[in-house]
Batch of 4 targets.
Target 1
Amino acid sequence: MINNVHQYYTYILTNVTHKVLYVGVTNNLQTRIWEHKQKLFAGFTAKYNCDKLVYFEEYNWIQDAIDREKQLKAGSRQKKIDLINAENPDWNNLSANWYD
């Protein structure tokens, strides 16, 4: 039997001043964060320089990740801040050593 491991991620990015929060979903977190850092796609994260990964969750099913993304996007800014503070109180860049 083949074990198909699915990995999907819901994540939160911010900018250097922590003024902007961006919620996204992907099946390859490392590649997607690199794309944000390189500003490969014009849009919100490129415009507001959101490339600091401060929070993420992992899921086995894409629909679960999408549902969580929608839940986070619908929530208040304070709920996102509380979530980040609970897991990453110093707001460290969780992808800081990924691209050495």
Target 2
Amino acid sequence: MHYRRAPEKPYPAPTEDASAALCWVAEPADALEIGSARPAIAGDSAGGNLALSG
């Protein structure tokens, strides 16, 4: 799945998508047996910027 991109979907749509993805993983963190206290985030190129800003 991809985040919404400009010019069709301008800011803040991509940032909202990155934030939603983090919440999507963080909510069931205990059930997935992953640590939710200190999540690791990553991205490549524009995705790296979104990962840090989301």
Target 3
Amino acid sequence: MPEEIRAQFEDDRIRLGPEALPELFEQGYFGRPKGKGLELSLVEAAYLLDRSRIKIMRNEKELDFRSFFQAASSMEKGFEFRYVVYKDLRERGYYVQPGRPDFRVYPRGGHPGKGPAEFYVLVISERNPLPLKDIMEPVRLAGQMRKKLMLAIVDEESDITFYEARERSMAGMMAGLENGGMATLLEDRVVLWDTEASRLLHESGFFGKPVGERLQLSLVESAYLLEKGKLQLTDRQGRPVDLPALTARAEQIDEDFELKLGAYRDLREKSLVVKTGFKFGTHFRVYKQVHGTLKVPHSEYLVHAIPLDHVFMPPVLSRAVRLAHSVRKLMVFAYPDDGIGYLEIKRLKP
């Protein structure tokens, strides 16, 4: 066992002399060279202290692990969660360095100076709400730097679940639209009366649900077809219903209608097939292509539309991603962003 290296606890950093460079930095890539010595972050110092690699002095007094951990957690918000994640990744054999947003993780066989980091890591407590913008900023940073973003969610028992988050490009392979013809707005759906138009619209674009020989359309499908000029809509009394009237009615029934319509429109314009995702607890299930309706393939995505100011609760996010994984789909969140942006989140096994 190497002799413990003496370190000084100053402000929010741990400073060591030049003797720390060969053993800690050059062999283990802990800390950063500073002047002639080495500077450690609080989480690196806690890890090394727990492994008896260093001893930490503060005001001429040596701190044990408990004293140091309590001091560090009072100085750095979220310190205890970051320590759990840092320790876990180090013990898995990764080189880990503090950085934006929380850590940089190097691939096995790589290290600082030999090659680039593979992941940026964002550490999250299961109890803390997570605004969409707090994910998208590191997602975009990681994308710009050609890195992956790892979300490390720490639960109340200090177990960690890892996810990868990234912007997703959505594209399908469906052909153009067929004309739907005359339809009637009922309570919360639309009925297309012409049997041939019903057949063509369902078979060519997987729109609606056949009920007998006629097609029942959802409100979001109907709004899309109406704005594309593929549907003529009336109420039960035969009075014309235009798009603003349909939208106003739909918003009274479904408070998420505007968000859903924006995502639905964008997905359809990207040649994807979009159907309700109710059975999966999401807004939509999405197919790249459907060849007829006799043998419908598995959908590739579950898509949930969220506002730009959406705040994720980690347990809800975990359930959504786990369900998508269990049915062999990717969980994607659609949000308004100069059009529609897509955030994919999936389980990750480091």
Target 4
Amino acid sequence: MSGLQTHDLPSTLRLTKAPTDQGPTAAETKPKKKICCACPDTKKLRDECIVEHGESACSKWIEAHRLCLRSEGFNV
């Protein structure tokens, strides 16, 4: 063990340290809910429209639900 070079340790720590000015971290942008439970109002409208009229006729409600999910932090 005498061959270990301890003087390299500080430079390793310095390389792995994250800068503090990089904006939101992963914990701050992580959604707070499961995707199935987010945006129940737009989900209901979207689902009812698709059942009654088909997916091609419901792009307005599909996009509204996507926007809501994005506002909740999901990448859809």
